[in-house]
Amino acid sequence: MHTLFRSTVGEFYRQRAGFFLIVILLAFGFLSAREHVGIAVFLLADKYGMISLAIVWVLYTLMAQIFWNALWSSPGYSFVYHARLLPAARRFSWLGVLAAGFLIPPLLYGAWIVNVALGEGIFDRSIPVLCIWAGMWLVLILWANRKLSNQDTAVSKKNVPAALRFKRPVSWVFWTLEWLLREKSLTLLLCKAGSLLFTITTLAYYGTDDYDLRLPAIGLSMAVLANIGLSYEVFHWETNIWPWARSLPISFLTRTGRLILVHFLLLAPDFLLTIRYGYHLLGFDEMSKIFFLQLSVLLWYHSSLYKEKPLLEDSLGAVFILFIVLTVLILYSTPLVLLAAALLAGGFLNFYRRT
Amino acid sequence: MSLSGMPVLNLSGIRKDFGNHQVLSIPEWSISEGIYWIQGENGAGKSTLFRVLAGMLPFSGQVVLDGSVDLRKDPVKYRLRVTLGEAEPLYPSFLTPADLVEFMVRTRKATSHQARDLMDRFGITSYQHQPVGACSSGMVKKLSLALSFLGAPRLIILDEPLITIDREAGETLFGLIKEYREQSVTFLISSHQVFTSGAIGLTRSFHLKNKDLVPAD
Questions:
Q1: Residue B82 lies inside a defined structural domain of this protein
Q2: Are B34 and B9 in contact (CB under 8 A)?
Q3: Three-state SS for B153?
Q4: Which chain B residues are closer than 8 Å to A354 by Cβ?
């Protein structure tokens, strides 16, 4: 059981760590406690509340099921099919534990909603929450049991990536972005959604009163932090997906330039949104300075990853410290271009020393 | 000046650690032109050595090609002359052999003619537009071998070149090794299968033992 749990559920959380990180960042960084309670009350009281919750949870369960199916279809997981030799009671109990493991996040959120319902004196309204969770749990168990009984469908399928409708450019930058879109689409979506939300919120707040440039500089520096998941994935692509590319005769400057271009393109939507929402609040030169700072922050973070090939969570401490230092320096009216140039130089040295 | 008297590859003070675990410790090692068989038990560090020599892994020490091209000081020039065919090659699954070959033609300054020839000889042409993710391990291995011959390498490193490929591809490989050897290309080959000196004319064998390279004969 322990082996099955670690290799299946553990792998789910390990491989989807970036996704959960972004969800947590959005949930706890972007929303206040009052807004969390407001959402829970909406889910409990509004006529569309439970339907909304059910839709989100079903989508989550579908994501978990797709992952589970792909994992157990991989050749390395043929050992799990021995579990079908177990007596039915034990087999279903094991599958129940696995399914519950996949559904821990909805379970925790469900507990939170029930807690809110108790506080608001509307416990009966929270009963559907438990029913939806139990329904998803049972569906996963039944599906997994069926999967165990059909091993021949497991290892024979090959995941063939869809072909492009045009000739693929021979470009490392294009391939990197294509890989992000194909393999890390959820992370891409959440990272961009997070950073764009931060950008809009910052600019909306900036427009409410007569603030100076420091406010959008701090707000948009925070917005760029939502992109670190993407920068980490680019690092993962470069070092783990095909490390063989490092044996190619490509100069350090070319490699650096490509990474800068990739990060520039990743941040381009943020810049366009800044122009869209901030054109009447900020001059183009001010927006460019902030964008330069954003790009430098992201590149500095990226260069720091080459130190010890850390896990994403291990690298967050440095990001946190960087953001505090950066905020203090911005508050003391340090020129943004100077800050950006210093970060860029530091990142360049980091990259040079560690690669 | 003929290069035959000069060491093609010279290693000095090579050390490679993974955390506290030391994998390589080679005080001094050099080879002249030829075909060299690197032997070693599983986990001895052959693939790590090859990855170090290909410039894929950071390491301590010095690696010099042809007496002057230092991997650290002249990384681009070095990498232009050294290629690696990995034991278990990994490529992004959505790319096709044609994408990778075209990319390599540009980076290694090879010609399209050479690329086409290698693809034909290894039988890659028939699946060149199929994503790598849809290829069998043998098909990917043949692609990796073809890529390692692209350009004008001075040293070709082949890590377990015979695993997963069919007999026909094996014969193509031996033929290419002989041809490139006639053009003064040096080979470092690791294999658990026995290489008889008659098949490709081995120059010498070394054993990777206790983190160091020692003569096997």
A1: yes
A2: no
A3: coil
A4: 58
Cα A168 to Cα A178: distance, rounded to the nearest angstrom: 10
Does residue B57 lie in a domain region? Answer: yes
CATH number at residue B199: 3.40.50.300
Domain that holds residue B26: 9-90+153-215
The secondary structure of B5-35, three-state, reads CCCCEEEEEEEEEECCEEEEEEEEEEECCCE
pLDDT tens by residue, chain A, 355 residues:
677 788 888 888 877 776 776 777 666 656 666 777 888 888 888 877 888 888 888 889 998 998 888 888 776 676 677 777 777 888 888 899 999 999 998 998 889 888 888 888 888 888 888 899 999 999 999 998 888 777 655 444 455 667 777 888 989 999 999 998 888 877 887 788 788 888 888 888 888 788 888 899 999 998 898 899 899 999 989 888 877 778 888 888 998 999 999 999 999 988 988 888 888 888 999 999 999 999 999 999 999 888 766 677 777 777 888 888 999 999 998 999 999 999 999 988 888 877 7
d(C-alpha B217, C-alpha B190), whole Å: 16
B133 found inside a domain = no
Least Cα separation, residue B126 to chain A (angstroms): 16
Task: With beta carbons less than 8 A apart as the criterion, state whether A221 and A198 touch.
Answer: no
The answer to the question of residue B120 being in a domain is no
Question: What is the rounded CA–CA span in Å between residue A316 and residue A228?
Answer: 9
Cβ contact (<8 Å) for B89 and A251? Answer: no
Chain A residues whose C-beta is within 8 A of a chain B C-beta are 158-161, 163, 168, 170, 172, 175, 178-179, 182, 241-244, 246-252, 354-355
SS (H, E, C) chain A: CHHHHHHHHHHHHHHCHHHHHHHHHHHHHHCCHHHHHHHHHHHHHCCCHHHHHHHHHHHHHHHHHHHHHHHHHCHHHHHHHHHHHCCHHHHHHHHHHHHHHHCHHHHHHHHHHHHHHHHHCCHHHHHHHHHHHHHHHHHHHHHHHHHHCCHHHCCCCCCCCCCCCCCCCCCHHHHHHHHHHHHCHHHHHHHHHHHHHHHHHHHHHHCCCCCCCHHHHHHHHHHHHCCHHHHHHHHHHHHHHCHHHHHCCCCHHHHHHHHHHHHHHHHHHHHHHHHHHHCCCCCHHHHHHHHHHHHHHHHHHHHHCCCCCCCHHHHHHHHHHHHHHHHHHHHCCCCHHHHHHHHHHHHHHHHHHHC
Nearest CA in chain B to A181: B94
CB contact under 8 A, A170 and B94: no
H-run or E-run covering B157: strand B155-159
Q: How many residues does chain A have?
A: 355
Among B16, B96, B180, residue whose Cα is nearest residue A170: B96
Task: Give residue limits of the domains in chain A.
Answer: 2-153, 172-354
User: What are residue B212's DSSP bridge partners?
Assistant: B209
pTM: 0.70
Separation CA B148–CA B133 (nearest Å):
20
* Tally of structural domains, chain B: 1
